Each structure stands twice: as structure tokens, then as C-alpha cells.
Amino acid sequence: MTVLIIGGTGEISTSLTHRLHSEGHEVTILNRGRRSVAVPAGVGVLHGDREKRADLEAAVSDRFFDAVIDFVCFTAEHAQTDIEVFSGRCGHFIYISTVWVYGAPQRFPVTEDHPCEPVEEYGRNKLAAEELFLGAAADGRLPATALRFHATYNDYSPWPSVLANDSTIPYRLRAGKPILVHDRGALPTHFLHADDAAVAVTGVLQHPELSTGEAYNVVGESLAWNAVFRSAARALDLEARLFYRPAEKIIAAFPERTWPLKGVHQYAMAFTNAKVQSLVPDFEVTITTEEGCRRRLEVSAIPRDARLEDPDPDLTARIDALQIESWQ
Questions:
Q1: pTM here?
Q2: Which is nearest to 93 in space by CA: 225, 5, 223?
Q3: Residue 240 main-chain phi, psi, to 5 deg
Q4: Is 225 in contact with 175 (CB distance < 8 Å)?
Q5: What is the DSSP string of 233-289?
Q6: By the number of CB atoms within 10 A of the CB, which of 19, 94, 241, 325 ranks highest?
């Protein structure tokens, strides 16, 4: 199979690139070349900006790809360009979407026919793109499929946190500092390792005739937030100390770091993989959240004798200040 990956060096796409290559597929990746991520020998690398239609046109040229997978389509404008460029030039198009398209859940578990009412701009933009792709599939312009992921990570990702871009979790656990959790920590969420995600994507690629025009949830281990942080602590052979604040107070205290909390994490995230597993029975969660944290430790470049150093003293101080405040 000839496969073009738009992206190819991100959290999910790096694992997918390696998996497809290991299975003998002819893989080409297209990105801006700004990440120093090693790709397997034999994988084609094209440098280009997906924001520029000319770069996409140059990537395709007169080639036909059995599959195209877009990891960096974030707007309706991106989607429209993909449809125009790849129509008639690929056998199957995979759009990497998100469960953010659902918004606040109305029933559980959340299945693919759940109403889509996103509450944040990222979710609204992804939904607008998804609607264009599935519309193009319905009228025969592009054989597209949407995969809705949530909280997918790899061995180099930040540890789980209610705050975006938070590097302090391992430090706080080692230093005996309590971890900030929204509300009472009982809301469920999902975390999916990229190696497991790659199994789902590869499996969907094998069934274009069944998956075209369809959307699929692809989510990981289901845990309450309390259990997420206790899993992280066990990876360090420690016990987690937790402290709780209302989601609204956390959002007010960290407006620049709480877009995931505003978007979906303030709600109960309880999705089902039943639909994608009916198509790809091999897809399952094999890497738990705890194991995912252990794997991060194995690849960490921080010397063991320096791992008690605070990587972000300013953020640590702000979290500590919120801990001191009373619950309101």
C-alpha cells in the first residue's frame, strides 16, 4: 500500500509511520521538517507546509496514493483544500478528528451517533472539517473516514495533568507535593498510547469499502482522574497526594493552560470503542496509563540525580498558591 501521511512526526503519527513501514507499506510523510524525529530508513520525507496548497499539490504531483492520512487538518479551510487536492488521487482518506466534536455528553457511553455540540473553538473547527470530509464521501468526491481520538500520547509526551503544557507532575510526585485535580477527581476520562492508536488506524486502512463515510471513536483506557494520578505515582513507586478545586476556579487561575479543561475535561468523558473494534478486532488497549508513565521514565533524558529539580518553578508556585486557598 502506498501511504501519504500529512504530519508523520507527531504524537500519533510517529508510531503510525513506524508501524506502516514495519508492515511493508510504502510510506511518505509531508511536514515542515521542524521536529528532529527519526524516521525509518526507506520512508520518503517531503518538506512542505500544509497551509500552502502549492506544497500539497507538489507532494501529490501526478502520484496516486492508496491512502492519505491527515494529522494536521484543523479547520474547514484545511479540509476544503484536502478535498480539492486529493479527490481522484487517493483510494482512501483518513481524517484525524477528535471527540471534542461532541461537546458536553448527554448520555453514556458516548457513541458516534451522539449529538455534536462542541463548546470550544478547537472542537467547532474540527467538526466543521469533519462535516466537509463526510459530505465529500457521501457525494463521491473523496472516500473519507473520520477517526475521533482523545488524549493520545507517546513516550515523549508530558505526563497527565489537568493543565496544558505542565512539566511538573513527576517533580511534584517525587517531592511529595499534592497534585491538582478538578472537582472531586471522580469524572472519567481516557488515555491512549500512540502505539495502540496506530493499530486502529492501520486496521481501518484495510477496510476502505466499509469505513468510507463513517466516523469512529478511538479512545484508550477509561479511568477516573483520581486513578490517573495514582497510576502515575505507581510508575514512580510512590503514592499520590491529591488536592481538589472546582474546575471553574482552576480555569480562572490558569486561563492560559486550561483550554483542555474548558473544552472537554470538565465533563465526564465516557466513550466506547465498540464501533471501531467491530471493524478492527485487533485494536485494544495494551499500554495502560501506568505503563505509559513508566515508558516516559525509560526515555527521559533527565539524569536520575537531577530529577528532583523543579522544571517550572513559576508554575509550581502558582499551583501551591491555589492549594493554600480554601475550597469555594
A1: 0.96
A2: 5
A3: -85, 135
A4: no
A5: HHHTT----EEEE-HHHHHHH-TTT-HHIIIIITS---B--HHHHHH-TT----S-H
A6: 94
CA dist., res. 95 & res. 68, Å (int): 9
Q: What is the mean pLDDT of residues 215-221?
A: 98
pLDDT tens for each residue of 110-157:
999 999 999 999 999 999 999 999 999 999 999 999 999 999 999 999
Region 283-296: mean pLDDT is: 97
Q: For residue 16, what is the enclosing H or E element? A: helix 13-22
Residues 87, 136 contacting (CB under 8 angstroms): yes
End-to-end CA distance of the chain: give it in Å, rounded.
Answer: 57
Alpha-carbon torsion angle 278, 273, 216, 60, nearest 10: -90
What is the rounded distance in angstroms from the CA atom of residue 225 to the CA atom of residue 57?
44
Cβ atoms of residues 207 and 138 within 8 Å: no
Residue 284 contacts residue 196 (beta carbons within 8 Å): yes
pLDDT (0 to 100) of residue 33: 76
